[in-house]
Write a structure and sequence with these properties.
Layout (H helix, E strand, L loop, with lengths): L1 H21 L23 H25 L1
Length: 71
């Protein structure tokens, strides 16, 4: 049972890493220092799906880590 949770956590971590790396930011580092391009754009289409995949896989990773800690 412990190995099953460990493998599930590993797969979830890989999905989380890939989904975070696939998210795009058009303004890059310039927006952090107050340069132009501070417009807000809503997520649509595939960007919204990737965002929700990263949120759900992050929550699943935390839950799996807590379950692994409890066992």
């Amino acid at each position: 049972m412990n190995k099953l949770i460990l493998y599930a956590e590993l797969i979830t971590a890989l999905i989380l890493i890939i989904s975070i790396l696939l998210q795009q930011r058009g303004t890059a580092l310039g927006a952090a220092f107050g340069s132009e391009g501070g417009t807000y754009a809503t997520r649509r289409g595939i960007q919204k799906k990737i965002f929700w995949i990263s949120c759900l896989s992050g929550a699943a990773f935390i839950i799996l880590a807590l379950v692994n800690l409890a066992i």
